[in-house]
Automatic annotation (TrEMBL), chains A, B:
Domain STAS, chain residue ranges per copy: 523-646
Stored SUPFAM superfamilies: SpoIIaa-like
Record organism: Mikania micrantha
Any one Pfam family match given in the protein's UniProt record, by short name: Sulfate_transp
GO MF annotation, one: secondary active sulfate transmembrane transporter activity
Primary localization: membrane
Localization: Membrane
Cellular component terms (Gene Ontology): membrane
Recorded coiled-coil stretches: none
Protein name as it appears in the record: STAS domain-containing protein
Organism ancestry: Eukaryota, Viridiplantae, Streptophyta, Embryophyta, Tracheophyta
Length: 654, 654
């Protein structure tokens, strides 16, 4: 080992005479200073749980200031509220009124998705937005019930209790689930586990949402065709829904209902189209639902169509958010059921809200702290569960309208919730004669936007594996159930991660002409190999899950090269340079793999050389005494330096 | 966008006047050719399931040759057998005899670990090694029953049936488990899922083995102190074992047993020590067990110590491997139990065998095909389960002896199994008076070698996280059960993988003096930042699991730098260069993150520049139209090129 080391040193000396600016690096890659264990541990912890460095602003501040800062951290309104002015309020007022007009009909419709009376949808658009307005850090999100969560909650709770025969138990379980959904969300935020929702990949969400949209639209056919729910399936998958629709055909669909529903659906879609074509007219689709509700209600009222079997909403309770804390199951078997359902629905609601928050934040370039968001959303749902609300979250459609209507702060949500409050108090009688068909049309026209074909196409273009996840989620939701879709999506996403860590890429490098840069010869065909040297780049951290593969793959590169050389009678390989730039970390299994690699190479008298190990890798290599094994002077800053030293003859023509 | 692009082009032109050898790369990073989807898919599939390219030798061979090759692939003996000669046989004969002398006493002892009669241990050293000899690709591994698997199998099956009261059912379940262990192993191999066992990291195995060794040693105290098994606990954790040992104290330990056991244990340990000190005397510890068996048996025989309560092995069935196919449960609930136990024990057996195979293969530098190995091991256990054998695998201790005794091929295993055959046929009467205490001493002295403290220390030195996995597995085995230990180990290993993919490292780069190389300024303090530019390196593939973190982390680097500059009244940042060398892949979520990053930067009028994206990343960037967004001329081969173009004033002093 030693004498070999010396002989290398000579080579280096020779090398230096040609390019003396090499000296700095060769000793630069020396034994690193012992890493401070505690510090290292702290950084890892920090980066894992506090990547956004939330306490940065607290640094060296007086105590009083710190208190204010922490209050502001919990209630951002204290921060932005101080710079609030009448100009901002104008924006918020208009936006608030617009989303209110959109949310009222949607709320009534969505609550039917959750098998709840209309008022609960309205309740959920009153309390939660208020709570969020004080705690949330997003400026554009519009809070309230949303289609997907309503559907999910409805189907899950329906399995436990029948909303028609056991309305009270059903309602209690809804509140229980809402409570635990809030607890789950807040806990994730407090424990800084926000990153967990990142495991639901964008692709999966796209597929999931499209699937859910179709499922919801199918559910609406019930109200749309005027089928009484006792003839309608409890399943949500396309096949059973279609079956029960055709089975119910001979019970007779209600033609009046269909006419009303269809005509207004057309109206809504036209309005949507106008809004899309001309962004200035965004308010057309925004108020269209309310208009169609008013018109259709008036129509039914004068024609008494409800006597001809046109189902109507009926009387709505005028009370404002009655307390429901006593209704929550805090004991017994139902507690567990509510807990399970709450976690599931809560996670979905979270994903949707955070996705919206991030989107608009990046459009206006402000930061939303994911974990803080979760605390806000969680608190609002906990409070909601005690005031007769079911799970609320950020709504895609309303947030977009809110943004386009020029909202400035969460005040637009406060405006909205006030309008909802007044509606519950004074305007509910107006909705008595509103035909359910209208609500179905409104829901259908709303969820259609969730079917994002362009996104799916883009995903296909960019990443086939993501596309599989996307389609998997979609088919799962449409043909089995919302849960199945989720499960498929998550499973595929994890499979992808495992594949990544089990089979990392490796590449053969060559020298790009007229430079000292070495790159993948497949990517840069003009790159030329160096005779007598094989340069391999490893494209991932070397961990137990891939160390053996990497070792064997590198050996295969070598033997393949050897065969080529034999075929063309060229000098045999003397050096194997492993480019470690992409290797961000290594573990004991990785070190062992490299030791085995070194031994195998020794047998074939090929020398192992390492290029550009990063700090962490270098530390661990030294901790394991690997450099003494292969010789310290076998580790270089760049491949170019390694080549300089390995094949001195090369130096002339550089 | 467009005009901005042009303005950049001018900058590039200016850049070029200074260093005209830049031209090649700037157009080199152009739109890549459309990737061939099918080809890509095929490569991924190949690298995942056929990383060792097993069919390479089959390429363009005549049909007849292909048949021979495939036969040789299944039965490697056909390949090495042809070059077999008398010289090799001498080595194999000596090695075979040595491991035989070691395995016979071990087999008898290990079968007691599995609560089986002695002959089953011997059976398992006869058939499986023969089968493996024809199919296995390792040359040094010694096949037979091993301590850990015997213990695991014993404890698992004991939970279903009591070996004393229900011996037949117990035996049948053992064979069933063995059968399904074999099926599992073979299936993994055939489906090319060998990489799955890599998920049990080296660190975890070290901890697991040490823990198992201690558990086994504790179990031996029963035989060692002469405690009758009805007073002994069925649990394997240290606490319950210690309890029942002290509880049994007043039932009286058998002093004769203790004396015999202790004295021979000392003898065995001394022999071990000699063997360790002087490698030439490796045969001393190898034959010591047999000698102590003979001596102690003779001693008991003449002193009739068995009448004074010294437990002895007793009569051993002379029949050779009676068929047991009819004993396997192919139906009923026991089928499932056997299946579950088989999978568990089979995986452990596999891990041990493959680890041994790899170790010796890398010492003699020959390839063992992991998947082929599994097929061989699986077949041998399936055949074994039909010939009254229980799970056999590669033994650490015997393989080491085999290697040191100079074995050449698997013939040494054939020799061993022949010796075992003769033993069963003619010598079993000799073992009638062998005291169990000796077997306990032999097992203790054998498993002590599995406690690898040096390895644990090394793991601690190299990687703290691995150490946690190691200790976790160890404590799990010692204080709960073998399964618990496994579970802990695997769980921690997965947590590590998830951490890696959720929180990748990022680093701020600086220019190393007198070079055009840019490196982490934390690792190379002498590296200098470039004014007006921030260079960030991302150290992992950008996936949905980390895309948001990476985006926000990069923005944080930027704002931190901005603050520093403001503090020192330096020009503000105009360019953010993201070094993508370590980014081996990106998915749709990653692309979205970069788009959001670009938008945020635009708001702060900082220009986004990318350096050295690899083929896969470049393809996906172009597929998503990202280059058009930031401008194609914003993607460079190296950071140096990017700097050349971004800050022309820099070119003068390069």
């Amino acid at each position: 080992m030693a004498d070999q080391g010396d002989e290398d040193l000579d080579i280096i000396q020779k090398g230096l005479t040609f390019s003396d600016n090499q000296t700095p690096y060769i000793h630069k890659i020396g034994a690193p200073p012992k890493p401070d264990l505690l510090k290292e541990f702290k950084t890892t912890l920090k980066e894992t749980f506090f990547p956004d460095d939330p306490l940065r602003s607290f640094k060296d501040q007086p105590k009083s200031r710190k208190i204010i800062l922490s209050l502001q951290a919990i209630f951002p309104i204290l921060e932005w509220g101080r710079s609030y002015n009448i100009k901002k309020f104008r924006g918020d007022l208009i936006a608030g009124l617009t989303i209110a007009s959109l949310c009222i009909p949607q709320d009534i419709g969505y609550s039917s998705l959750a098998h709840l009376k209309p008022q609960y949808g309205l309740y959920s658009s009153f309390v939660p937005p208020l709570v969020y307005a004080f705690m949330g850090s997003s400026r554009d999100i519009a809070i309230g019930p949303v289609a997907v969560v309503s559907l999910l909650l409805g189907t899950l709770v329906e399995r436990e209790f029948d909303p028609n025969t056991q309305p009270d138990e059903y309602l209690r379980l809804i509140f229980t689930a809402t409570f635990f959904a809030g607890i789950t969300q807040a806990t994730l935020g407090v424990l800084r586990l926000g990153f967990l929702i990142d495991f639901l990949s964008h692709a999966a969400v796209v597929g999931f949402m499209s699937g859910a949209a179709i499922t919801i639209a199918l559910q609406q056919l019930k109200g749309f065709l005027g089928i009484s729910s006792k003839h309608f399936t409890k399943e949500t998958d396309v096949i059973s829904v279609m079956k029960s629709i055709f089975k119910s055909a001979h019970h007779g669909w209600n033609w009046q209902t269909i006419v009303i529903g269809a005509s207004f659906l057309v109206f809504l879609l036209v309005a949507k189209y106008i809004g899309k074509k001309n962004k200035k007219l965004f308010w057309v689709p925004a108020i269209a639902p309310l208009i169609s509700v008013i018109l259709s209600t008036f129509f039914v009222y004068i024609t008494h169509a409800n006597n001809d079997g046109v189902a109507i909403v009926g009387k709505i309770d005028k009370r404002i958010n009655p307390p429901s804390l006593n209704k929550i199951y805090f004991s017994g078997e139902h507690l567990l059921k509510g807990f399970r359902i709450g976690i599931e629905a809560g996670m979905i609601a979270l994903t949707e809200a955070v996705a919206i928050g991030r989107t608009f934040a990046s459009m206006k370039d402000y930061q939303v702290d994911g974990n803080k968001e979760m605390v806000a959303l969680g608190t609002m749902n906990v409070v909601g569960s005690m005031t007769s609300c079911y799970i609320a979250t950020g709504s895609f459609s309303r947030s977009a309208v809110n943004y386009m209507a020029g909202c400035q702060t969460m005040v637009s949500n406060i405006v909205m919730s006030m309008v909802v409050l007044l509606t519950v108090k004074f305007l509910t009688p107006l909705f008595e004669y509103t035909p359910n068909a209208i609500l179905s049309s409104i829901i259908i026209s709303a969820v259609i936007a969730l079917i994002d074909i362009d996104a799916a196409i883009l995903i296909w273009k960019i990443d086939k594996f993501d596309f599989i996840a996307c389609i998997g989620a979609f088919l799962g939701v449409v043909f089995k159930s919302v849960e199945a879709g989720l499960l498929v999506a998550v499973a595929i996403s994890f499979a992808k991660i495992l594949l990544q860590v089990t089979r990392p890429r490796t590449a053969l490098l060559g020298k790009i002409p007229m430079t000292s840069v070495y790159r993948n010869i497949e990517q840069y065909p003009e790159a030329s190999k160096i005779s007598g040297v094989v340069i391999v780049r490893v494209d991932s951290a070397v961990y137990f899950s891939n160390s053996n593969y990497i070792k064997e793959r590198i050996l295969r590169w070598l033997s393949e090269e050897d065969e080529n050389l034999k075929a063309t009678y060229q000098p045999k390989i003397q050096f194997l340079i492993v480019e470690l730039s992409p290797v961000s970390d290594i573990d004991t299994s990785g070190i062992h793999a490299f030791e085995e690699l070194y031994r195998s190479l020794k047998k074939r008298d090929v020398q192992l050389v390492l290029a550009n190990p990063c700090q962490q890798v270098l530390d661990k290599l030294y901790a394991s005494g690997f450099p003494d094994l292969i010789g310290e002077n076998k580790i270089f800053l760049t491949v170019a330096d390694a080549i300089h030293t390995c094949s001195p003859k090369l130096n002339n023509n550089v």
